[in-house]
Amino acid sequence: MENIDFGQVIKNYASSREDIPPAMMDSLMIRGISFEGKKVVDLGSGTGTLARKIAMRKANVVGVEPSSDMLRQAHQLNTTRNFTIPYTQATAENTGLDDSTYDIVTVMRAWNLFDREKALQEIKRLLKSKGILIVIESGFTPDSEVVNKTLTVLNRDKEGGKKSFSNQFINGFPVEWFAEWQHNGFELRDFYKLKDSITLTKEEWMEVFMVTDMDGTQRNGLFDEIFSGISDKESFEIPYECNLCILTLA
């Protein structure tokens, strides 16, 4: 997983990353993916955003997450929102879970952070015959002034993200991933895109990008630069898209 310490911003991260389109779970059901009664592993589960959605569909879901800070928040959300989801501190490459036990493995916003070849071997070990892998990528889209301004400022000073190795994408997925999945015995069943938006205050928007090595002066300078010349309103409707890929273990 990416070596970033989210400890000081974990609560804001949890609130600002609840960006799962309401239609997403229904879109999977329409495509024949039922979670009811299924055993599911959510890899890179973070604070449990997706795991909770899956649990609401009456699945037996376990979250796997290497960050102790993320897990602490996930357990707190279990308590405050009346869930009993079990979480284990482990990596996608070595979960420590039982062989051939799970019907579905899900990964949301984490596939690019894994050692993908090792993670695929682990997923194959976890899944039952004909098991399903669902990979979900989501991100804000440059369809608003605040998103465009933020991307301009951040891209000026930072190198591209972990997906920058690819020159071609299909519905938000690097084309290389499709070849890797096929090479490892996963058949593409469906992939598609959903669009939605989330309302965030200026502070919540900034917390999406803040990490612990940024001091107050740096943070305030970035804040002022991003919001200079933008409307004085305190919250923004931020558009985002959610890309889903459904694969079956051959």
Please name the defining characteristics of this protein.
two-stranded antiparallel sheet; 34% helix; 27% strand; 250 residues; globular; disordered N terminus
Descriptive overview:
- By secondary structure, the protein is an alpha/beta fold.
- Helix content is 34%, strand content 27%.
- The protein contains 9 helices and 9 strands.
- α5 links the parallel β4 (102-108) and β5 (127-140).
- α6 (145-157) packs across α9 (216-227).
- The two termini are 27 Å apart.
Number of strands: 9
Fraction in helix: 25-40%
Number of helices: 9
**Strand order of the main beta sheet, please?**
3-2-1-4-5-9-8
Q: N-to-C terminal Cα separation, in Å? A: 27 Å
Q: Secondary-structure element order, as H and E?
A: HHEHEHEEHEHEEHEHHE
Q: Give the averaged pLDDT, no decimals.
A: 85
Assembly of the depicted chains: single chain
Largest sheet: 7 strands, mixed
Unreliably modeled segments: 1-16
Based on CA atoms alone, the radius of gyration comes out at: 18 Å
SS-based class: alpha/beta
Instruction: Quote the beta fraction.
Output: 25-35%
* Overall outline: globular
List the helices and strands and how they pair.
Layout: H1 10-16, H2 24-30, E1 39-43, H3 49-56, E2 60-64, H4 68-80, E3 87-88, E4 102-108, H5 116-126, E5 127-140, H6 145-157, E6 169-170, E7 173-174, H7 175-183, E8 186-201, H8 202-207, H9 216-227, E9 235-249
Parallel strand pairs: 1-2, 1-4, 2-3, 4-5
Antiparallel strand pairs: 5-9, 6-7, 8-9
Helix pairs in contact: 6-9
